[in-house]
Specification:
Largest sheet: 5 strands, antiparallel
Radius of gyration: 15 Å
CATH topology: Alpha-Beta Plaits
Shape: globular
Low-confidence stretches: none
Structural class: alpha+beta
Strand content: 15-25%
CATH class: Alpha Beta
Order of helices and strands: EHEHHEHEHE
Distance between the termini: 22 Å
CATH architecture: 2-Layer Sandwich
Number of domains: 1
Length: 147
């Protein structure tokens, strides 16, 4: 089992209860928090795309909006399968992203981020635990570990 991170994105926030219920079937929730997503978390999660034409739009689209971050103890492959099922159901409900800049660059919105490898999980969970110690725009939290 591995600690891994999930993030329910702002446009799926209203479906958070159903998404968390589904995720709980794949692993044990260690921590969850409803937050206003800081840019530092987004850079950690999506930094590998820096330099891509859609990167700035991706970050600005989610920054300082409500989302849910959760840390689970689970199997990454099970979470990836579950994520695809959740996305299949919810993503069709999401509004299309218009090409929002002068270069006609857009991206496809999806409802859920999940750590996709052990290396990514270690980086994302470590960063998120530190972030939660210092976060100032927390909406609500439920934690089983102390900060």
């Amino acid at each position: 089992m591995t600690e891994l991170l999930t993030m329910i994105k702002p446009w799926a926030f209203k479906h958070r209860t159903d998404i968390l219920y589904a995720l709980n079937r794949a692993g044990k929730m260690i921590h969850t928090a409803e937050i206003f997503i800081p840019d530092s978390l987004l850079h950690c999660l999506y930094g590998r795309f820096k330099g891509q034409p859609f990167y700035d739009l991706l970050i600005s689209d989610m920054m300082n909006r409500e989302g849910v971050i959760s840390i689970y103890d689970g199997n990454i492959e099970k979470f990836m399968e579950l994520k695809e099922g959740i996305r299949e159901k919810l993503d069709s409900l999401l509004p299309a992203i218009p090409y929002a800049n002068a270069n006609n660059v857009g991206y496809k919105r999806n409802s859920l981020h999940t750590s996709d490898s052990v290396e990514a999980a270690e980086r994302e969970v470590g960063f998120t635990k530190e972030l939660l110690k210092n976060i100032t725009r927390l909406v609500r939290t439920n934690s089983t570990w102390q900060m």
